[in-house]
Amino acid sequence: MRKIDIIESLKSYMEFEKESGVREYFFNMAPASQASCPRTNAQTLEELKKEVDSCKSCDLSRTRTNVVFGSGNPKAKLMFIGEAPGRDEDIQGLPFVGRAGQLLTKIIEAMGLKRQDVYIANILKCRPPNNRAPLPTEILACADNVKRQVEMKNPKVICTLGKFASQTLLKTETPITALRGTFQLYDGIKVMPTFHPAYLLRNPQDKRLVWEDMKKIKKEL
Ligand code: SF4
């Protein structure tokens, strides 16, 4: 992540906190290695889910209603990875169930699949307040969870939805507009970055670009 993105992310967080009445900040200066979730002995998605359900490694644990671990077929060849839960997801404890999720369901069905045929998760497992952008510290604390989900699932193809998921998984600062449409590699697994369904709700003219990306995934599967 670029320094300018970190500054912008912190700025929007502080603006949100200011609106909520917060006037002072206390920064945890612990080294980054202490800020991330400790690796545990979980061997299966079920075991990992149990651990993540009680995770308090970042401040989002204080404002979440539910942890949104992920859902779908654990043996699916195709895994979608988004950014973070929103309001509906936080309430239901399931990923992509709001308006953007309904659009993702339509995209999956247009590929000739059902939601039960794929696996869906987010980089962050808890909702950022007011749906603000994830903070770098939160990504640092949570990113290992999705990496372990990928290790345990070992999908044939991953589709990252939007800038945050794509840049975090692929460890790149390349904009999503340049990343999308071309397969990348993560740990030997093909990754197709594409636009987030929430972006498509605001920019429906770009649905055809996402459909081009989905056709490439279908071919690969
Ligand atoms: S967002 Fe991730 S690291 Fe933070 S509390 Fe939730 S599960 Fe833990």
Architecture overview:
The chain is an alpha/beta fold and 221 residues long. The protein has eleven helices and six strands. The protein has helices at residues 3-19, 32-35, 45-53, 60-63, 87-92, 99-110, 136-153, 163-170, 176-179, 197-202, 207-220; strands spanning 71-72, 78-82, 119-122, 157-161, 184-186, 189-194. Strands 1-3-2-4-6-5 form a six-stranded mixed beta sheet, sandwiched between helices. Strand 5 (184-186) and strand 6 (189-194) form a beta hairpin. It is globular, with a radius of gyration of 17 Å. The two termini are 30 Å apart. The model is unreliable at 12-34 (pLDDT under 50). The structure holds iron/sulfur cluster. Residues 37, 52, 55-58, 60-61, 67, 124-126, 138, 141-142 line the site of iron/sulfur cluster.
**Whole-Å distance between the termini?**
30 Å
Give the number of helices: 11
**Largest sheet descriptor:** 6 strands, mixed
Rg calc? 17 Å
Shape: globular
- Distinct small-molecule ligands in the complex: iron/sulfur cluster
DSSP strand count: 6
Mean pLDDT, all residues: 87
Strand/helix succession = HHHHEEHHEHEHHEEHH
The helical percent reads 40-55%
**Biggest sheet, spatial arrangement of strands:** 1-3-2-4-6-5
Poorly predicted runs:
12-34
